[in-house]
Amino acid sequence: MLNRRALLGAGLLTGVAACTADTPAPKNAAFAPYDWTSVRAQFALDPAYAQFAAFVLAPAPAPVREAIRAHRDGLDADPEYTPAGGGSPDQTVREAAARYLGAEPGAIALTDSTTMGLGLLYSGLVLRPGQDVLTTEHDFLATHEGLRLLAARTGAKVRRVRLYDDPAGASADRMVAAVKEGLGPRTRVVALTWVHSSTGVRVPIRAIADVLAEANRGRAEHDRALLCVDGVHGFGAMADGVADLGCDFLASGTHKWLFGPRGTGIVWGRAWDAVAPIVPSFSQAAFAAWHNGGTPGPNTAELVTPGGYKAFEHRWAMPQAFAFMSAIGKDRVRGRTQELATRLKDGLAGMPHVRLATPRSPELSAGLVCCSVAGMQPAEAVGRLHGQKVVTSVTPYNPSLLRFGTSIVTNPEQVDQAIKAVEGLR
Predict the structure, then answer these.
(1) pLDDT cut 70: percent of the chain above it
(2) Using CA atoms, how far apart are residues 211 and 205, in angstroms rounded to an integer?
(3) Percent helix, percent strand, percent coil in the chain, to nearest 5
(4) Over 70: is that where the pLDDT of 9 sits?
(5) pLDDT value for 29
(6) 66 to each of 51, 187, 219, 281, 318, how far by Cα in Å?
(7) Residue 3 has pLDDT above 80, yes or no
(8) CA dihedral defined by 22, 27, 31, 32, rounded to 10 degrees?
(9) Model confidence over 245-304: pLDDT tens digits?
(10) What domains can you pick out in the chain, each with its CATH number?
């Protein structure tokens, strides 16, 4: 039998998080989920600044910070600490994520970030000879590098299509058509990003999933094109669940638009049999097979979840992040995010020295708003805006752009403040 210390390392813990996914977030008298001022007050962000870069490495709201503190203090007081209750904290996290996504807990692997999730996915996908991979020119390093490593390991050809020339003029029809035209008879993986961090363009994932469903008719299961999505800039900002998206895998960090604990993430999948584990799992199945000298059996999300000791105080606080956002309401969060983004885009669009890169239409964008300022490098614009108490970021692409993120920690007045500040960048 494993002792408590071994169980802790195995993730087979006998307790549950201090507040389970079925329990409301820790009570805070000031928190009224229907009141945006109250929502903003749950964050420790400096109120002197209009915060448009919170999505980069998100701050945690009060219930999440309190959960982290409680677990940290427990571990500091007793290295064999397990949260009170019965069951497994990791399973509690999966159940909370599953409810938020409209999924089953067993379909969710736990990770530390979007990049880790994509790495586990693209390094573990099993490809047959002659199968190829389709992606786009617009994806982030995590996808492109992950696919390069997949190609180096398997010899598979990776092809890229262009979804748009001018992101501000992107259209859903053209994006869907580009993917459809890029598909080959042996395409096994279609790797896309839900919301491009380079431009703010939101890709019509559902429509592309429908195209793939048609292309997969008549294909054998092991030849079916799998739609794999980097969802980090849609997850938490948009309201779509996995059924709405229609993809086969969705990878996302939970420390961005969900405002979860830093160093946490998930991968949801419905085709785990196509993915081989890369890092040994500390699951019950893995331990049982090890003890018995066998193998754990068919691949599952739990077997793909990397084992080892984690920042458990952060992982076990993930249910509070899901509960916090659910209390506000996924549709309300999406509406607020896009309402503020539209207000910002409308204000920037009328400036002759500013060129918007993000589509004006909410159907083709989320909370990211990217632009360029004539005669000014994005990093200089970020510095000048910060001097006016407006916090922004630079896209890590070539060429780079000035980037804003409207979210539940910004308000209409701060959007107007940002517009006025950009107007002065001449």
Answers:
(1) 93
(2) 10
(3) 40, 15, 45
(4) no
(5) 52
(6) 22, 46, 50, 29, 12
(7) no
(8) 50
(9) 999 999 999 999 999 999 999 999 999 999 999 999 999 999 999 999 999 999 999 999
(10) 89-325 (3.40.640.10), 330-423 (3.90.1150.10)
